[in-house]
Design goal:
- The structure is a single chain.
- The chain is of the alpha+beta class.
- The protein has 2 domains: 32 residues; 96 residues, Sandwich (Immunoglobulin-like).
- Helix content is 28%, strand content 25%.
- The strands form 2 sheets. It has a 4-stranded antiparallel β-sheet with strand order 4-3-6-7. A 3-stranded mixed β-sheet has the order 1-2-5, with no helix packed on it.
- The longest helix has 30 residues.
- The radius of gyration is 22 Å and the shape is elongated.
Length: 129
């Protein structure tokens, strides 16, 4: 009978250890997320597309969009909205001037929806591994 209790306790200890390891692994992935300011010092603007060169993004990384909210905004769009420079119904619009957006795996598309801005190049497509 004592052996039965010992094996149950051993299974509980193994389960607790597995949960602790899972928490450590999840925390480790979060700790590796990077924060990028779009456009660096220049912020979110008409020439932000070149800012992407040489950077590698991962799901969970954070983009910070800094801009004057009276002059610009940030709209998360799909590929069609990116190509057509139009925000589909229900698109998330950011307008604080200091927006933080966490990247999802795959390509994340952003435009400025102020008239003519996207067409003038104020858009980026960020692919996160």
């Amino acid at each position: 009978m004592a052996q039965g209790r010992g094996s149950a306790a051993g299974r509980r200890n193994a389960a607790v250890l597995a949960m602790v390891l899972l928490c450590v692994l999840l925390h480790g992935e979060l700790a590796e997320s990077a924060v990028y300011t779009v456009g660096d010092r220049g912020g979110w603007g008409f020439n932000s597309g070149g800012w992407l060169r040489g950077k590698r993004f991962r799901a969970g990384d954070v983009l910070v969009f800094k801009y004057s909210p009276s002059a610009h905004n940030v709209v998360a769009v799909n590929a069609v909205g990116y190509k057509s420079c139009s925000a589909p119904r229900g698109a998330k619009v950011y307008k604080s001037g200091s927006d933080r957006v966490t990247l999802a795996r795959g390509t994340n598309y952003f435009i400025c929806s102020f008239p003519g801005h996207c067409q003038a190049g104020m858009k980026i497509a960020v692919t996160a591994a």
